[in-house]
Structure formats: structure tokens, C-alpha cells
């Protein structure tokens, strides 16, 4: 069964007197080991869909199943637990904590989950080394290049070994060569850990190398070539 199954998702926003129907029955299932590119124009609802899939935002109708568990009627505590343990996020801007080192940024979500410091440190160092950042463990974000910062953000996103990775234009701020490095890092992790991944991107070269491509049209998901 899919890691994430979005079933007939509807979402509206009120903007003054106007109601905006952003999602109108969006349907998407993603299996373990699958990388899905989400390609759609600005304003189509990509971030909204990712926030709903990541249990950061509630849909108005429809259901989000994570590993077959319907999530809409769960308590906030339970949704937070699933989000922390099962779901990793990568954003366009890295959102790393500036006063902490690279490895500390990757340790934090693990320590919030209750792992002992030395275990979090060991896994943090291992993940960063795996992503080619062995020599950057004790650098602070400001001392790293954009591509390196984004690889630290990827390591942080998978620090708690999630089943689902959601990325919102993870290479959006990077030049083509750096985007390539970051995409390879993402792919490496998705393949190694058999994650289900949904990656919103405007980069068609990168999208072409994922397993599936989908778009949002009139609030619905369509598979594209
Ligand atoms: P994308 O990520 O594809 O650019 P978004 O999901 O961010 O699209 O936004 C889809 C539409 O919903 C846009 O028109 C946006 O302005 C609107 N929107 C998003 N979030 C909100 C919100 N919190 N309140 C009102 N409108 C919103
Ligand atoms: P990548 O392609 O992996 O993102 P770059 O080619 O952009 O790497 O950067 C090369 C090296 O320069 C990096 O290893 C990084 O440590 C260093 N560097 C880049 N930007 C900065 C910065 N703002 N401060 C300190 N070092 C930097």
C-alpha cells in the first residue's frame, strides 16, 4: 500500500469576499522508493498540497492516509507525532538554525524525539558524510555554500528516518550545477532508504529523471509524461 495516499482532497481559502478553490478533489498515491515530481505554475496549489500531505495544514474535505492510517480525525498530538517520526520536509530556503553547526542542526530533530545526544551526533555525522559533507560538520550555515546548506537541510529532514519526504522547490535558489549536486543527494537518500518522495520543482531536467511526474490542473492531480 502507498506510504501517502491523498484522497479527494479539497481546500479553499477565503481572500476577503472571494473564495478561492485551490484543491478540488486532488488524488495522489506514492509508494515506498518512488520519487514523484510535482510540476505546476506558481499559484497552482503545490505548497498547499505538500502542507496537507505533511499534516501541517488541514484539508476541508477528503482524507490523507499515511501508511493506511486516516489522519484527519487524529488529535494534534498524534498528527505531530506522525509528522516528526514519519515525514521529512525540505524547503526552498534551508531554514537551518544559524547559531548551530551543521551536525547540531541534524542532531536537533533526533534529540527532540528523545534520542541520546551521542546517538544523534553519530547519526548526524554519518548522514552528513554520506552527503559529502564530512569536512563541514562543525561549520555554521553562514560558512557553507548554498548547495552545502541545502544538503544539511536534506540530512536534517531524514534524520529521524521518515517514510515520506516532501520537498518544496529544494533547488529553487541554486544554480544548475549546485542543483545537480543537491538533486543527487536527494536521490541517493530516497533510493537507499526507500522513501516515498514528492518534490515540487520548476527544473524540468531534474523532473525528467524522477519516477513519475504530476501536475496540478484546476485543483486536481494529473499524471504527465
Ligand atoms: P504554489 O505552491 O503552487 O505556488 P500555493 O499552494 O502556495 O501555490 O497557493 C495556491 C493559491 O492559494 C494561491 O493563489 C495562493 O495565493 C493561495 N493561498 C495559499 N495560502 C493561502 C492562505 N493561507 N490564505 C489565502 N490564500 C492562500
Ligand atoms: P557546492 O557546489 O557544493 O554548493 P560551491 O562550489 O558553491 O559548492 O562552494 C565551494 C566551497 O566554497 C564550498 O566547499 C564552501 O565551503 C566554500 N564557500 C562557499 N560559500 C561560502 C561562504 N559564504 N562562506 C564560506 N565558505 C563558502
TrEMBL record:
Q: Per the record, GO CC terms?
A: membrane protein complex; plasma membrane
Keyword annotations for this protein, in alphabetical order, are: ATP-binding, Cell inner membrane, Cell membrane, Lipoprotein, Membrane, Nucleotide-binding, Translocase, Transport
Alphabetical list of InterPro entries matching this protein: AAA+_ATPase, ABC_transporter-like_ATP-bd, ABC_transporter-like_CS, ABC_transpr_LolD-like, MacB-like_ATP-bd, P-loop_NTPase
CDD domains recorded? ABC_MJ0796_LolCDE_FtsE
Q: Which domain of life is it from?
A: Bacteria
Q: Which Pfam families match?
A: ABC_tran
Molecular functions per Gene Ontology: ATP binding; ATP hydrolysis activity; transmembrane transporter activity
**ABC transporter domain: from which residue to which, for each copy?**
4-224
* Gene Ontology biological-process entries: lipoprotein localization to outer membrane; protein localization to outer membrane
Family membership noted in the UniProt record: Belongs to the ABC transporter superfamily. Macrolide exporter (TC 3.A.1.122) family.
Q: What is this protein called?
A: ATP-binding cassette domain-containing protein
Q: What is the lineage of its organism?
A: Bacteria, Pseudomonadati, Pseudomonadota, Alphaproteobacteria, Hyphomicrobiales
Q: Which gene encodes it?
A: lolD_3
